[in-house]
Amino acid sequence: MAKVALITGGMGGIGTAICKQLADAGFSVVTTYSKPGREVQWLADAKEAGYTFRAYQCDVTDYDACVALAAQITADVGPVDVLVNNAGITRDASFKKLDKVNWDAVIKTNLDSIFNVTKQFVDGMADRGWGRVINISSINGQKGQFGQTNYSAAKAGMHGFTMALAQEVAKKGVTVNTISPGYIATDMVMAVPEDVRNKIISGIPVSRLGKPEEIAALITYLSSDLAGFMTGANLAINGGQHMH
Which active-site residues does the annotation give? Predict the structure, then answer.
């Protein structure tokens, strides 16, 4: 039976690439979305491209919703073997202007969700003797970014979680890793004014934005049997923009 991979917030540019590559690698792919509406078109587009995915609505900031999600996925598809914590938002503002509402929104979606979702699946992975937890962080969790105290704090916290959990489950055949992408050519980045985008690119040594497929390829490797010796790592994939 095919292993099951769950990608939270998998309908964006990077998420879609991850879903497709994991399916190509033989996984049964499941994803989540927060607000109803776009999933019908997304699933139809995927089907047209030859992919059959399952999508479940879930507010990853709500612990009880994550409990219900896990029960539903287990009943419909089976136990989850690979978890990619990809759901995230930005609410940028200088710290002087950042309010409590936007601090809380980012911490809940980008950091609390890691606990809420991982908690449902990691014990089962350990019991079965194999599993992969992959947390999608950001270059800005490594180097910080003006106007992103909320986002940078959440993304840095994510890797602290990775390192601690990796030590707890290493003997059980479960690896836990963080990926920290730089600027990737998603719709969100491409919507940035061209002069701003060119300025970003000028700061990247490889002189281009990353491709969603490049992020997905790294995740596919981490999800494989061959990646069993890598755990607790924070893998930078940013075109040389930040070297650590």
Answer: 151
Residue 243 lies in a domain: no
> In this structure, what DSSP letter does residue 227 have?
G
Q: What is the DSSP letter of 57?
A: E
Domain span at 129: 4-228
Q: Is 56 a member of any domain?
A: yes
Q: Helix and strand tally (H, E) in the chain?
A: 10, 7
pLDDT tens, position by position, 19-64: 999 999 999 999 999 999 889 999 999 999 999 999 999 999 999 9
For 17-50, b/e burial (b = at least 16 CB within 10 A) is bbbbbbbebebbbbbbbbeeeebeebbeebeeee
Check pLDDT > 90 for residue 192.
no
Query: How many structural domains are present in the chain?
Result: 1
The answer to the question of residue 242 being in a domain is no
Look at residue 186 and give its three-state secondary structure: coil
CATH of the domain at 148: 3.40.50.720
Q: Is residue 94 part of a domain?
A: yes
Query: What distances in angstroms separate CA 96 from CA 29, 101, 107, 199, one per listed residue?
Result: 42, 14, 18, 25
Contact 81, 26 (CB under 8 A): no
**Secondary structure (3-state) at 49:** coil
Rounded to whole angstroms, the Cα distance separating 219 from 23 reads: 12
Spatial separation of the C-alpha atoms in residues 42 and 55, rounded to whole Å:
9
Rounded CA-CA distance 119/30 in Å is 17
For 94, phi then psi, to 5°, come to -60, 155
